[in-house]
Amino acid sequence: MSAPGPDGADLPPALVLRGVSKRFGAVEAVRAVDLEVTPGEVLAVIGPSGCGKSTVLRLVAGLESPDAGEVLIAGATVAVGGGRAVPPERRRVGMVFQDHALFPHLTVARNVAFGLHGRPAAEREARVSEVLELARLADKGDRYPHELSGGEQQRVALARALAPRPAVVLLDEPFSSLDESLRAQVRAELVGVLRASGATALLVTHDQTEALSVGDRVAVLRDGVVEQVGTPDAVFERPATRFVASFMGDADFLPAQVHHALLTCEIGVVSTVPGWGAADTAVEVVLRPHEVALEVAPPGTAEPAVVVGVEYHGAFLLHTVRLASGRTLRSWQPHGVRHPVGTAVTARVRPGLVPTLLVDDRAVSGPPGAP
Ligand SMILES: Nc1ncnc2c1ncn2[C@@H]1O[C@H](COP(=O)(O)OP(=O)(O)OP(=O)(O)O)[C@@H](O)[C@H]1O
């Protein structure tokens, strides 16, 4: 896939990984990974600890070499499995780490100028001013890193990475060292700078909210394998696998039945499923807490669900209910709606849901075996 360039010419993808694998002894850290990032795009790479996120980033940076496959940056091959590799400093990548990795004895301006050595002094100075302006640090050029807040230090690190106009900026858990109360604000500021620069970025994170809110697309990794790549809506609303469904947000799974194009489960009719024809199939339906409605059960309701837990989250309350089968489901209720533990309720799927259906842990859009 190419993107239209400024003059109408097609630009090559900023980054391509094709069939990339990397093994450390007995551990296959990355297995046959295919990824493509278009110019100006931010791709968030997410997965549980040890799934290979940092290895993907290090393979792009040139800090590791692939055993198989190839890596291309802005159309140029920079690494081929078992073969030649372009060294990191010649790859046109910029890096931002969680600990900033700024030089403590250099001013902000000299930190930013660091990646520009070899360029004429006037050009270097002009570029440093430009990126400091972009990072809203124009008045901080003479300060030392320890004289800045954590968020400002992170923006210096980004400014330094952007200064040489890299083809791709690699961000490795850039917010994980910040405490929770600061993180959202620092993230918004940093992403603002990144967007304003028009840079292409690969963001490694283990935080689902971060991946969904920052990425133009999200790549979900598990055990070194890409389980799904898609827009934030796609990975959240149309997960390709049970793993993606449960990793990218809260999800409960109920056995369900398709019969005459109608999907039913223990809490009743979920939806129609056009395209299933007369198929009669056992599936599992993925239900997220915002998709489940609760009402106090009318007296005499046979086998009502029972509230077994209520968590206060400020704007919303997360209710957990136990169904007659013993399975549990979660439901977000708005602020002010609290069904105390022990309340008999009826659970329903909110109308309009286009459910994700799983067969053997993979999403299906029609009866198994259909073309
Ligand atoms: N240099 C290395 N030597 C041996 N094993 C390694 C090396 N680097 C990574 N691994 C292993 O490869 C796998 C993937 O590691 P990686 O650091 O890429 O995961 P990650 O998803 O970034 O994890 P985390 O979120 O915990 O940082 C892990 O099992 C890890 O132990």
UniProtKB/TrEMBL annotation:
GO terms for MF: ABC-type ferric iron transporter activity; ABC-type quaternary ammonium compound transporting activity; ATP binding; ATP hydrolysis activity
Xref: Pfam families: ABC_tran, TOBE_2
Domain ABC transporter: 15-248
GO CC terms in record: ATP-binding cassette (ABC) transporter complex
Enzyme category, top tier: translocase
EC code(s) of this entry: 7.6.2.9
ATP-binding as UniProt keyword: yes
PANTHER family membership: SPERMIDINE/PUTRESCINE IMPORT ATP-BINDING PROTEIN POTA, SPERMIDINE_PUTRESCINE IMPORT ATP-BINDING PROTEIN POTA
Protein name as catalogued: ABC-type quaternary amine transporter
